[in-house]
Amino acid sequence: MWIKDEYFVRGDVPMTKFEARVISLAYLDICNKDVLLDIGAGTGSISIQAAILGASVFAIDRDDEAVKLLKKNKEKFNVDIEIIKGNAEDYIESLNFTKCFIGGSGGNLLKIINLIDKNPNNKIVVANFIKVENLSLFIKTFRELKYDLEVRMLSISKIENDLLKANNPIFIARATRGR
Ligand SMILES: C[S@@+](CC[C@H](N)C(=O)[O-])C[C@H]1O[C@@H](n2cnc3c(N)ncnc32)[C@H](O)[C@@H]1O
Prior knowledge:
Layout: H1 18-28, E1 35-39, H2 45-52, E2 56-61, H3 64-77, E3 81-85, E4 99-102, H4 109-118, E5 124-129, H5 132-144, E6 148-154, E7 157-160, E8 163-166, E9 170-176
Helix pairs in contact: 4-5
Residues 13-16, 39-43, 45-46, 60-63, 66, 87-89, 103-106, 108 line the site of S-adenosylmethionine (SAM).
């Protein structure tokens, strides 16, 4: 089951939209044995969908409103995800995970990438970016770390009342451990 955007409890936190969620989770190639670390989990849309696909999930966010939404959506969809409130940088080293999604990094992307790389069990990192600057940093850093890279720009428009309604374009990047 793939959950549509309108079913999530929403607040002021920006949510990863349906099409970006589907592509990001396909890039992560989520399966039963995976442990996903969702950094900047927001409303929990990625975490909850990954749990429904069979992964164990750590959902981290530093924002109070996001953590409230995470709890509400966890309850609504009755999934077993572990919610952590705080800066991802302070927790990554203490968690064991096999795949990682970065939905927000709050200016600490470089530190977050280097911490993720230290975990030898992590195989794939997928990130969503709206800023070219962050995309460039992701590409540069993972290239230096010898990961395989794939990047797409996603631009979705929906037809509503006979008119096109556009979502903001986003970059979806994947880094796969090549060593
Ligand atoms: C675009 S939203 C994420 C959307 C989320 N994937 C969803 O579907 O709702 C980015 C989130 O990242 C969080 N964030 C930013 N930097 C963070 C950090 N260093 N550690 C933890 N959370 C962070 C923000 O609080 C915000 O909720």
